[in-house]
Amino acid sequence: MSWLPEVASNLASKVDGVLWFITIISLIFFIIISTFLIYFAIKYRRRGDDEETPYITGNLTLELIWTVIPSILLMVIFVYGFVVFKDMRTPPKEATEINVVAKQWLWQFEYYNGKKTLNELYVQQNRPVKMVMRSDDVLHSFFVPAFRVKQDLMGGRYTQLWFTPTKVGTFQLFCAEYCGTGHSKMLGKVIVLSPEAYDRWEKGEEEEEGVASLSPAERGEQIYANSGCNACHSLDGSKLVGPTFKGLIGGESELEDGEIITADENYVRESILEPQGKTVKGYPPVMPSFKGILSDNDISALIAYMKTLN
Amino acid sequence: MANHTVAETLPVPFLEKTGILSWILSTDHKRIGIMYLVSISTFFLIAGAFALTFRFELLTPEKNIMDPHTYNVLFTLHGAIMVFLFIVPGLAASFGNFLIPLMIGARDVAFPRLNLGSYWIYLLGAIIILIALLKPADTGWTFYTPYSIQTETDVIMITLGIFVLGFSSILTGLNFIVTIHKLRAPGMTWHRLPLFIWASYATAILQVLATPVVAITLLLLIAERTLGIGFFDPAKGGDPILFQGFFWFYSHPAVYIMIIPAMGVISEIIPVFARKPIFGYKAIAYSSLAIALISFFVWAHHMFTSGISEVAATIFSFLTFLVAIPTAIKVFNWTATLYKGSIWLHSAMLYALSFIWLFTIGGLTGVFLGALAADVHLHDTYFIVAHMHYVMVGGTVMGFFGALHFWYPKWFGKMFNENIAKIAWFLVFVGFNLTFLPQFILGTQGMPRRYATYPPEFQTLNELSTIGSWILGIGIFIVVVNLIKGLFNGEKAPQNPYNSLSLEWSVPSPPPHENFEEIPHVTDWTYGYGKKQNTEK
User: Fold this and answer.
1) Is the pLDDT of residue B515 over 90?
2) C or N terminus of chain B, fewer CB within 10 Å?
3) Which chain A residues touch B380 with a CB distance below 8 Å?
4) Mean pLDDT over all residues of chain A?
5) Is residue A232 over pLDDT 90?
6) How far does the CA of residue B235 sit from the closest CA of chain A (Å)?
7) A170 touches chain B (CB under 8 A)
8) The pLDDT value given to residue B276
């Protein structure tokens, strides 16, 4: 088990350089202080009540040394940290732009060709990408440990971040800025594809191949896990931000205005597309609309999956 | 030993009177100190219990005993109560009240009634925060906008409580500044002052200058929630980063409000138990002031990834490294004081030595967070949680426990069981490290903070941390029981059990109502331990 995540972007090894440099300097100081503390505490332990001690109030040379040397080292660390930071904040001109929208509690990515994905960011190996990011509601933070990048998102202002993924694979994306009840479920994946695979993904071939073999309910289960439903809706009957999916379809729900309805396919569909219309009593009206995010097929699959939970 | 007739005419010890009114109407700084001590300790234990509860939740990656909302509420309350009701008033209000007049040779603080008023205001703020627990906030103790504006939980009540607490803090600071300026005994020049007084003075300046900013910020937040004025919510045309700037403009100096008094305590304990003059007195004294001053200009190092400009981030990173220097100097000075000493490993000294060791870890890990590139990776992960606890628990709480064990005989006139105190110290020390060391690794590996659930690969380190929290909890429990037990059946404390040269040990234990029968004339500094080799002072 390593103390740092794997290195999967061009920036990661640079940041690790800074982390290692500070670690080594810190360890040296830590060992010096610890050694003196323990050595003194043992060597000069009181053995009798009237031991004589010298009257030493200071030593200018010593004090100058331990002021000047740490000061110089701290300035070196500052400069090193700044130099790498400057790289992290200077995207290359040729970087591909991807729009990122964060909302409670999901990530939405929009690519230059109009393609949209939810909680899954597709990027190509060795091609620099620049995220242009905003939030639809509260603060969020885009954090991929394997890339060593992090940047907050907010409403009313765009923030940016860039990296060049260097390894093919799937990497964890976290929301690092506390954003409410579903914070720890606001997870995503960064999927780094080889240039060939990325080409196929762009043309939409990959997707078709992958889903063709799945039943609607199986596909619905994937959507539940990957589209952010799981942040607010449980499968086991427990109450999260929203009502549980268990027994939802066919069951009775009391709405905010007191009306009792039987939740059917149409109610679920309406609630996904226009969530603020008929909210269930006792739950805050915070769900974002999935219009344009989930297709009709996706919604049907999700409904099929929800029926298996009864 | 004084003879009988004299002893009978001595003023009565300040603890003699009983009855609730003798407490809540008392203007005696020592009694007010005790009221603060009991209050802050109670809140320390409550907030600690919250921490044990949500640490238990983190034993498993998915849900263990509570839903995410409950988890969020608990870490919010843990942080808010620890910060605003325990650690900010903390040592400054409790030991500051008790010690400042005694150490400078005064009968009380400059404004005794204002002092009592400060305590009442503290209590009022505490009561408001307790009312806020009816529908507790889930924003984190930092109340970041716009979440704190949009959440349906009760943010107004808790921030109102903190607003009220601020006045207590400001008035206490003001009182101490005047006291230290005007009430020093004859001969108690600035350069003879005990270092705890220097630390209290620096803290008081921070309290007076920084607290109004958080008060105004919280007022703006309340105005935005109730009146809908768009200061901070982008949906209303406000700026969420502005809130962070305001908040940390107070809360970073507040970090030093929390730690500087503990540094003062350590500077008192070490010379007494090493029988050595403090090494580099002036460096320690002025570094407290330097830290206080620089701490006003480093607040944005909490915001490197928030969206502030690169230029701002770079300037604040530079200034942050400046504040590390006076802090490092203190650590070297304390360690050098031990050289050729005659070291008595009393429980108070064990806490003081732990302070140096743990605070060194806390300080060095702070260097990581000051360096821009490293902070981008580590910000908002468990690395921050660990760093902050090494400073606040490894630093301030160790200082607090050290102070409790050191001045206990003087304050209460009783002795506690020293062997049990040592066992408790050991458990606290081991438990603390087991709780928070693994969190550094969790942080570098990338686990974000404030997560009710987490990916399974982080489980082992979380388990270690949770087990550590149990040991720490048991250790603190023994500390509390041991000290309370001492009040009832401890031996009577001698006037000066450690042969300290400081003024508070020149009066009986516990001290009489107005401390000194006759105001002492001070002829030397407080650290004249050891045999002088030459005429140098």
Assistant:
1) yes
2) N
3) 141, 143, 150, 176-178
4) 90
5) no
6) 7
7) no
8) 94
Cα B31 to Cα B411: distance, rounded to the nearest angstrom: 10
ipTM of the complex: 0.92
Residues 383-402 of B with CB under 8 A from A: none
Instruction: Write down all domains in chain B, each with its CATH number in brackets.
Output: 22-506 (1.20.210.10)
Find out whether A217 and A309 touch, Cβ atoms under 8 Å. no
A65 in Cβ contact with B361 (< 8 Å): no
**How far lies A304's CA from each of A242, A309, B312, in Å?**
19, 9, 52
Closest to A97 in 3D by CA, of A8, A162, A159 = A162
Q: Which residue of A has its CA nearest to B325?
A: A71
Reduced to 3 states (helix: H, G, I; strand: E, B; else coil), residue A109 is strand
Exposed/middle/buried for B209, CB within 10 Å: 0-12, 13-18, 19+?
A: middle
Instruction: Compute φ and ψ for A31, nearest 5 degrees.
Output: -65, -40
Please check whether residue A15 touches B, CB under 8 A: yes
Q: What is the pLDDT of residues A70-129, one digit of tens each?
A: 999 999 999 999 999 999 999 999 999 999 999 999 999 999 888 888 899 999 999 999
Tell me if chain A has a CB within 8 Å of the CB of B517: no
Chain B residues with CB under 8 Å of A184 CB are 68, 448, 450-454
Task: Tell me if chain B has a CB within 8 Å of the CB of A232.
Answer: no
Span B221-242, average pLDDT: 91
Q: What CATH superfamily is the domain A214-307?
A: Cytochrome c-like domain (1.10.760.10)
What percent of chain A clears pLDDT 90, i.e. is strictly above it? Answer: 58
